[in-house]
Every structure is written in structure tokens, then in C-alpha cells.
Design a protein that fits this description.
The protein folds into four domains: 196 residues, P-loop containing nucleotide triphosphate hydrolases (Rossmann fold); 132 residues, Rossmann fold (3-Layer(aba) Sandwich); 77 residues; 85 residues, no CATH class. It is 43% helix and 15% strand. The strands form four sheets. Strands 3-4-2-5-6-1-7 form a seven-stranded parallel beta sheet, with helices on both faces. Strands 8-13-12-9-11-10 form a six-stranded parallel beta sheet, sandwiched between helices. It is an alpha/beta fold and 572 residues long. The two termini are 44 Å apart.
Length: 572
């Protein structure tokens, strides 16, 4: 079994042998056992399921929330001659259907999907026809509410395993405390799993911290980090889009070849930046923290944080993208005393006080009574006494919804659209799509076109509003595929549309309750708030530590280390 795995490793990936932790993980998976792998960034987690995928019969389904990881890994596998594909919201419905058909026909060895994809009845129906032998759940810490990146979509995965014939499971994450590991096993439904934890120590990384309380001082410190290192691959992390743009401009003015990357950019622009960075055309990327997730680039020599992250888990994962090739690399934190207050604001916004949650419930109840049905938050935000921000209201509604006190009654009409084609052209295509090859083989796009024609009276109402939820219902698909269908109609010159992202509507699930009667787990909310504040305190402790940086990090993750590492700003 091990010799076969080594042969595949050498043939497709060019490595002479596995690292010790990889070898044990691959053997566990090939032995048929559910496996939880905790392996730091750069440890080679993906090989732990890619190698078994090539040795086992059937399809390996990889669940990941990271579009960048999907593209990067699928491109890498295809270059090696391995049949792999991804399905996500960047594709049209036709492209998605074609890839699912390939998977069902046994033409793929690995298929990458987002966890939200399981919410699509069309996907679940297609998956029923696939021979799925292994499911790999990446970023598995997202299933834990104790983790640093909790995502509710992960909690819904467990119910789908039986639909898939209960395949073998492998869960992977870069950082997980004992509480998070227990949550992963329970919430994903791993059966008698082998839990494998690789050491967090990476001796090639040099850790350093600089306190710079003024923005100009941080800017000078950033330029010092890049001085004399032209062409050196680096990532600079900033907490906001505005700071990303400012830092990029600062570097460019100093002659550094740099590019910005954040969610405010169009998807195509972000993809171009990533491709140019991967190829070495642009050595420095300044980005928000989503950049780099799952991207396999070994020669990153420097990771600089312009602000202190909210937890050591997040910092270790982001900084750990440096030096994956085992050569010396630098992880630099530029922080200010005020960084803490920014994180405290977001923590308290995420877990608002009991009085705000109760006030949000009462305001929603009054608004629904006055308007005779479910209402969006904007209709009653002004009635919530003591509210400090709309973000606080969003968190209060999430907590009430999770507790079953209110329910999301559906999306409001969240898209503005207008017809570009004439009413006669719309009626012509609806009556006979065969005259237009772009629609004749696309049932999803035709279903969207028919629905839009109905609600706009065959195109005679030139401007109208439509809910993405309704479009998804016409297609029997998810919201992502609804967007793709509208995009296809826009590319064909039939409609113009924009997503205005108005809030969902809410309503109480039962008669009026007093604040004391609300079925909210107040102790749990307080506990989670305190946990996040404790994580922030430990992160701040790292920034202000007078001792060895490496020792501080390793102790946090439950490992021991000597008093001095000789490779940080406190010891070197």
C-alpha cells in the first residue's frame, strides 16, 4: 500500500517521498478509516487526500469554501494529467451541468465544491448518480462555533452523508484547539476517526513584531521591509480595502512592483492579480485576509501584517504562508495599540447585549403587526432603542433566528432589471427557443427568461424588480446558479440587471414573548463573546511579549519549546 502511494507521489507530483505526517495520514485514509488531520499551513495537507483519490476507485469529493483554492488545485492537478474539476458560483449553469455529468460518468477523480452547493436540489440529485468513495472536508474548523472562521453551511453537511452512501470522510484544518477538534468529529459525523496532529514548529520562519502607533510610521516600516528586496515574493495583509489601496500606492510610489487584492474588485481583476503573483510578474500583493487561502506557492519570503489579527489561529495561518519551501522566510507584524479596539468593536457587534437582542425582537414584532407581514430590517432599524450599528442589528437577528424566535421569510425583491431586447424579440424567443442556439441547449437560462417574461408581461414592463430566490425556484437550483442565468441573459443582450442585495425579510415564529421568555441561550452568547475576547488577549500578548516569539506560539497550540529559538526578534 505504501509503495503504491510512493509511486503515485513520484509519478504525478515529483516528490521522492512523503513527509512523516503525510505518510501516516495517507496510510490511514487508504486503510479505510475516517481521519482528522491538523497540519499547519505549508504542511502538504492536500496530498493526504489527492494521493488516495488516485489509488482508490470512484470519485473523491472535496468540500472547500475557498474559490482560490479550488482554482489553484484543479489547475495544478490538470497540469499533472489528473482528471479534476470544480463547481462553484463563477460558472454558468451549463458549465456546472457538464462537469457534474463528467463526474457521474466516472471521468473525474476529484471534484471540488463549496459547502453551500449541498443546498441545491439539482446538485444533490446529480451527486446521487456519482460513485463517491471519499469526501475530503477542507478548512474543517469552519464547522466549529469555537473556531476562528465558523460557517453555518458546514453544520448542514452531516445530514447529506447518508444520501451519498456514507462514504469515508477525511477532515483537514491548519489550526484547531482541542475544543475545535471535538466539534469537527461530532458535527461532521466522523466515525472512530484517527486524529493526527503534526507539530506546529517551523524552524525556517523568523518571527518579529514592531509597534508603530502612527499610520505614517507603519508606512515607513513597510517600506523598510521591502527595501533592497526587489523581486522577492511577499504578501502584505491589511484589514480594510482602504488600507489595501493606500499601502499598494505607497509601495508603487517607492518603485516596488505591487498589486492590490480585495473583495471590492471585480472577480476577473482579482483572478488576474492572483495569476500574475503566482507567475512572479507581480512579486508583492497587498490584500485583505482572504488572499492566499489554499494557494500553493512555495517561495513566499515575507508576510507582513499591517494590523494585528483577532486571534493567534488567524495570524499563524496567514503568516504561515511564508517559507513553504523550507527556506528562511520572515513573518513581520506591524501593530499599534489601537488595533485591539477595532477587534473589540467587531466582537461586541457580533454578540450584542441582551437588551439589544430583546429590543430588536420587540421592534420586529411591532413592525410586522403594523405592516401585516414579514419585513426587512431597514423597516424597523430606527425603532431598536440603544442600537449602535446596523451590524449589531444583523447579529441580533441571527441570534434570534438561531434560537427559533424569528424566521427568515425569504429574500425581498433584491434585483433591479430592465429589458434591452424589444417585447417582440422576447416573445419570439419564448415561443421558439430553437431559433437561438444560445438558449436551445440551456434549460436553466430559458427557465429564467420565461419567468422574467411572466412577471414583466412579456417584456412590456421595461423595468422591474425580481427576487433571486424566485429565479432559483424557477431553475430548481441555488442562488449562485440563478445569478449565472441572469448573467447569461445579460451577455446575450436581452436584459440588464444589478444585484442590490436588499435584506431578507423576517417575522416572529410565535405569539409575542417577553424578553425573559425568549428561548435564547444567553450563557452561550456570553461564553462565545468571552472566548473571542480571550483570543484577542492572547494575540495581543504575542505582540507585547518580551520573550521568545516562537515559544509563545507553540505553547498556545499545546506544544513545548526551549526558552530561546535564536530565530525571532527577541532571541536572534
Amino acid at each position: 500500500m505504501l509503495s503504491d502511494a510512493r509511486s503515485v507521489l513520484r509519478k504525478y507530483f515529483g516528490y521522492p517521498d512523503f513527509r512523516p505526517a503525510q505518510r501516516a495520514a495517507v496510510l490511514s485514509v487508504l486503510g479505510g478509516r475516517d481521519t482528522l488531520i491538523v497540519m499547519p499551513t505549508g504542511g502538504g495537507k492536500s496530498l493526504c487526500y489527492q494521493i488516495p483519490a488516485l489509488l482508490r476507485p470512484g470519485l473523491t469529493l472535496v468540500v472547500s469554501p475557498l474559490i482560490a483554492l479550488m482554482h489553484d488545485q484543479v489547475n495544478g492537478l490538470e497540469r499533472r494529467g489528473i482528471a479534476a474539476a470544480l463547481v462553484n458560483s463563477t460558472l454558468s449553469s451549463d458549465e456546472i451541468r457538464a462537469r457534474l455529468d463528467r463526474a457521474a460518468a466516472g471521468e473525474l477523480k476529484l471534484l471540488y465544491v463549496a459547502p453551500e452547493r449541498f443546498g441545491s436540489p439539482a446538485f444533490r440529485s446529480a451527486a446521487f448518480d456519482m460513485e463517491i468513495g471519499l469526501v475530503a472536508v477542507d478548512e474543517a474548523h469552519c464547522v466549529s462555533q469555537w473556531g476562528h472562521d465558523f460557517r453555518p453551511s458546514y453544520l448542514r453537511l452531516k445530514r447529506h452523508w447518508d444520501e451519498l452512501g456514507r462514504p469515508q470522510l477525511i477532515a483537514l484544518t491548519a489550526t484547531a484547539t482541542p475544543e475545535v477538534r471535538a466539534d469537527i468529529v461530532r458535527e461532521l459525523g466522523l466515525r472512530d476517526p484517527r486524529v493526527m496532529i503534526r507539530g506546529f514548529d517551523r524552524p525556517n520562519l523568523r518571527w518579529s513584531v514592531r509597534r508603530e502607533d502612527r499610520r505614517a510610521e507603519k508606512g515607513r516600516a513597510l517600506l523598510e521591509q521591502m527595501d533592497g528586496r526587489a523581486g522577492e515574493t511577499a504578501v502584505v495583509y491589511a484589514s480594510t480595502r482602504k488600507m489595501v489601496e493606500a499601502a499598494t500606492e505607497l509601495l508603487r510610489d517607492a518603485g516596488v512592483v505591487a498589486a492590490a487584492y480585495h473583495a471590492g474588485m471585480k472577480r476577473e481583476a482579482r483572478a488576474r492579480v492572483q495569476e500574475r503573483w503566482m507567475s512572479g510578474q507581480v512579486p508583492v500583493v497587498v490584500a485583505t485576509n482572504a488572499f492566499g487561502m489554499g494557494i500553493d506557492k512555495e517561495d513566499v519570503r515575507r508576510v507582513v501584517h499591517l494590523q494585528m489579527p483577532g486571534s493567534l489561529e488567524a495570524y499563524y495561518q496567514e503568516a504561515g504562508r511564508a517559507g513553504r519551501d523550507g527556506k528562511e522566510a520572515h513573518c513581520v507584524l506591524l501593530h499599534s495599540y489601537g488595533d485591539r479596539f477595532i477587534h473589540e468593536f467587531f466582537i461586541r457587534q457580533s454578540y450584542p447585549p441582551r437588551r439589544i437582542i430583546a429590543a430588536a425582537y420587540r421592534a420586529l414584532l411591532d413592525a410586522c403587526t403594523a405592516e401585516g407581514g414579514p419585513v426587512p430590517p431597514l423597516n424597523f432599524v430606527a425603532r431598536v432603542k440603544g442600537l449602535k450599528s446596523e451590524g449589531e442589528l444583523t447579529s441580533a437577528l441571527r441570534i434570534l433566528n438561531d434560537a427559533g424566535c424569528i424566521e427568515n421569510a425569504g429574500a425581498a425583491a433584491d434585483c433591479a432589471a430592465r429589458w434591452i431586447a424589444t417585447p417582440e424579440r422576447v416573445e419570439e424567443i419564448v415561443a421558439d427557443p430553437g431559433d437561438s442556439s444560445e438558449f436551445s441547449e440551456s434549460p436553466a437560462v430559458m427557465a429564467a427568461l420565461n419567468g422574467l417574461a411572466r412577471i414583466s408581461r412579456s417584456g412590456r414592463r421595461r423595468s422591474f424588480r425580481v427576487s433571486l430566490r424566485d429565479v432559483a425556484r424557477w431553475l430548481d437550483a441555488d442562488i449562485a446558479e440563478a445569478r449565472a442565468a441572469l448573467d447569461a441573459l445579460q451577455r446575450a443582450g436581452l436584459i440588464g440587471w444589478r444585484d442590490e442585495a436588499r435584506s431578507s425579510t423576517y417575522r416572529p415564529t410565535r405569539p409575542a414573548q417577553s424578553p425573559d421568555e425568549l428561548t435564547v441561550d444567553w450563557e452561550r452568547i456570553a461564553r462565545l463573546r468571552e472566548l473571542d475576547l480571550q483570543k484577542l488577549k492572547r494575540m495581543e500578548g504575542y505582540a507585547f511579549s518580551r520573550g521568545c516569539r516562537r515559544r509563545y506560539l507553540l505553547r498556545y497550540f499545546g506544544e513545548t519549546a526551549g526558552w530561546k529559538c535564536g530565530a525571532c526578534d527577541r532571541c536572534g
